[in-house]
Amino acid sequence: MGIQTLLLIAPPILLALTFHEYAHAYVADRCGDDTARLSGRLSMNPLRHLDPLGTIMIFLVHFGWAKPVPVNPARLKNPKKDMLSISAAGPLANMVLALISGVLLRVLPPAFNASGGYNFGEPLIFMVFMSLRINLALAIFNILPIAPLDGSKILAGLLPPRYEQMLVLPERYGPFILIGLIIFGRVTGVSILGGIIWPFVKFFSKLFAGV
Length: 211
What we know:
- The protein is mostly helical.
- Helix content is 72%, strand content 0%.
- Helix 1 runs antiparallel to helix 4, helix 4 packs across helix 6 (150-158) and helix 4 (79-115) crosses helix 8 (192-209).
């Protein structure tokens, strides 16, 4: 990856990660738990949210993470329902950014063509395109029902209480499964995660931006 490409994709990555974590913190605060706010996480400052290793992993293997937002279920008004809402907020925030990016991709190229400034606008269009793809990938990756991803908590919130015990083992071994899938994809060149995520990324890219 060249330095120019790196500089163009860094802002969309930082915005995607920051808005994702901010959404978790915002909804948690609205649900009665001010832990994230008191920890300084109710902020759009990327430095409040970035995990150094997780950010590096995004550039190296295209899967990464930010620092988890702290949530105290005991302080929530309705712990089961509120945890579902808090967990879903991050992926939904990324879908909102993806939709905005898609709309911009429908508007910007014709505008630059009409003004004769298309060459000047190419870097901006590329950045917006990467914002679309990054936010879609992050949203879909995070709703996978594998701990510690948001999807595992969303699933727990949707399951009736009598089935919650079934999630104990998946939650315990989820991180190892996730790391194993990433390593397997890098070693073999056959990405199971990519095979799940990218068809949805392509579908929503077409839906939002027509590309």
